[in-house]
Structures are given as C-alpha cells and as structure tokens.
Amino acid sequence: MEKGTFSQWVNQKVLPPIMKFVNTKAVVALKDGMVYALPFIIIGSVFLILSNVPIPAVAAAIKASGWADVFTQAYTTTFGLIAIWAAVGIAYVYVRNENYEALPAGLTSLSVFMLLQFLQIDNPLVAAMGKAGTGITNSAGNVVMTGTRLSANIDKLPDTIQNFLTSPVTGVINVTWLGGQGMIAAILIGLLVGWAYSAMMRAGWKITLPEQVPANVANQFSAMIPAGVILTASMLLYAGFKFFLNTDMLQLIYKILQTPLQGLSDSLGGALIIAFLVSFFWFFGVHGGLIMGAITSGLLIPNTADNAALYHAGQLSLANGAHIVTNEFYNNFINLTGSGITIGLVIFTLFAAKSVQFKSIGKVELVPAIFNINEPFLFGLPLVMNPFLALPFFLTPVIVALSTYAVIAFGIVPPLNGVAAPWTTPAIVSGFFIGGWKMALWQAVTLLISTAVYFPFAKKYDQYLYNQEQEKAAQETSEA
After folding, report:
1. I need a labelling partner for 177 at 20 to 30 A (CA). Which of 26, 341, 356, 377 fits?
2. Model pTM score
3. Per residue in 330-364, pLDDT tens?
C-alpha cells in the first residue's frame, strides 16, 4: 500500500471511529473529570515521600518524632481518596457539559459511592490471629504476643465474647475503597450518575419554584427529584447485593472487573500497545497523548495507587503484588521528553545538524523538551506524516517500554513507588522521585536509547533538508 493510500485509509477508516469514541460524552467526562484528582495525587505524593524518606536514618528520626503518622494522615486524605475525587469529578463534568447545575450531581455521585459499600472494616484481631497472623505489637513495633498465642487465649473465652471481639467494626468508612481499589467502581458510578441525572433533568423531572425564590435555593430543589431517584435506586441495589449475594457492589466490581483489567494494563503486551499507539495517533496529527491518557488513566492510576500503598507499608516488591506499568510508567517513560521520546532529535540538532531548518527547530524545542513538551518537533520539523522519521518515532517508545518493563521485572530496578511526579518534571529528576536513584539512572539510559535510535534517521533527514537548502540557495544566486 503506497504512503498516500495508507494515510488516506487511516484517516478515513481508522481515525473516525476512534475519534468518535474519544469524543463521546462518557469518555470526555472521564478524561476531564479525572483532572480534578490530579492536585490531590501530586500533593499526596509529597506527603508519601515525607512519610517514607528513602534514607534510613532520616526515616527513623521522622518516625520517632511522630511526624510519620502526621504525614500518613495527610497522604491518606489526599492521594488516598482518589476514588472519591473521580466519582465526584466525573459526574460533575458529565452534567456540566449538559449545561445543568453540576455540583449537586457530583455530590449525588459521592453519596451513591458511599451507599453501595459496606460501612465496616474487618476487626484488626482477625488479621493478628493464627500462625500467619501479625500478632500484637507494641509502640516500638515489637511483637509482644504471637498470632498463635493470641488465638489460643481468645479460644478460652466464651463464644459470645469471641464473636464480639472478631466481628467487623461497623459504622466506619473503609478507606481501602476510597483509593485505587475503588477506582473502577467510582468511574462507573460517576458516569452512570451523570447520565441518569442529565436524562432526568432533560425530561423535566424537577421541582420548579417561583421566580422570587433565590437561584441558589431553587437549583437545589431542582436537583431533589433526580438525586432522590438515583439514591433510592442505589439503596435498592445495595440491598440486593447485601441480602442475596452477601457482598457489596464495590467488592464485586473489584473482583470481576478491576482486577482483570489492571492485570491486562500491567502486562508487557499492554505496555507495548500503549507505547505504540501514542506515536501512531500523533503521526497522523491526532493528539495521541490525550487519547491514550483518556483510555488508560482509569486503569493505570489504580496501579499507581496500589504501588503507593505498598511503598507506604514498606512492602514495595513484585512478590507483594506491585505493578510494573503505572501512570508514571506512561508519563515518565513512554512520554519522556514528549510523545515519541524525541530527546534524541534534540541532541542531534545540538551536535550534528547541518540544515538551517533542523538547527532552528532544535533551538526552539530545546527548553520545552526538558519539560516533556515536543509540539515544536511534532508540527515544526515536522514529525507528523514524516516518512523519514516515522520508524524511530514509532520504535523508540516501544523499545523504552520493553526495556523498562524488563529491568523492573528482572529486579534490576525496583517497581515505581507510586509517587506521582507531574508529567512536566524533567527527566532524571522525575526518575528519582518515582523510583529513587536507580530509576533516575535508568531514565538517563532511556535518553541514550532515544539518541541511538533517532540519530541515523535524523542524519538522513537532515541531509535531505540540507540539500534542499543548498539547491534553493544556488537557484537564488543564479537568478540574482
């Protein structure tokens, strides 16, 4: 298939259905609604680092001072509540885009999210009992009664007291579901509440008050019927799960939907597909980062949250269930220095470019590239629809994704720690934040990989541009 024919086929057959999907109300609400969680993820990452400083002496001093618990509290109520931010933000954006008062919908989504889960936690004694139990520890962290001994002593008590001591603690919120483990449920609830709320408002299911009533009061009465219908339906759904399945909706979604999807996103195949598609869409002038970010964020952010929880507990390892592919794997490796990992082109322009066009665009791109922005290259060089640079543009992110997955899988570098460095954080600096000095060093290696892959192709394209410039200069001289 010739280049023009292939491009035409992609533009006519491949991109339209993809763009139609990406621009649906649900995907737009998901993409824009998740943005509201971003400040809490980043701020919470700071508290996560402070509560787990990767310097043993400093970490011990912080723990002894009591500040580790304070930082943990701040982390739990920011990063640890990402499912709440998602549930509220997605419903809010969905209804806002339908041009209705949006905050009541966001709050309704939050109420539904809480309603559909058991408001209880397992009794701490359950995890402490038995051979595999943690036992009882003192304030210094030393075990003062083993799990086996604890079980033996509790078994001596009357059955009524045993049941009381080991029964779930009710009337409390289980923070487990407010973080990464509740993310898919939060997304589904946010979308369904947004859709149902908008549909009822559109159908006129609202209480209309006289014009004399202040707008802020009237808006809340307008929200009462849609919110009431949604909450009543959610209550009946909760009752069905409780009485007939002996579980709640969030647990079921986590087991049958979120766990398999996270496993798929965390696979080598998933990483390679994501890496390829970002550049693939960009090559045809479509924002690959936004498309893949919208599609993958609902799965990769929970992966990040799971790793953050393991890191906070001091158990970050693949053996303990840590994920390789997280949102930071996407932001700080697949898109390092911009989509296509184009730092290799920047280095080429600094040391080897001969053409004026390459040198000029390289100077413009130098500073943005440090902050992972490469639109000057994408549209100015250009990389979009450029057959000279298509292969390295597609290949570099795939090679980096493959090699990064491998070095984590084989234990050469540790899993990403769940810290969310903003996507504009410069390379190597972001690596240190998201995985320590080993990850920073590996990011430096990925920059060298980009340079090695792009260099021969950039040299050929630069020679092509240089020849064109020389021919044009010679023609202008002869005409003069």
Report:
1. 26
2. 0.78
3. 999 999 999 999 999 999 998 899 999 889 888 88
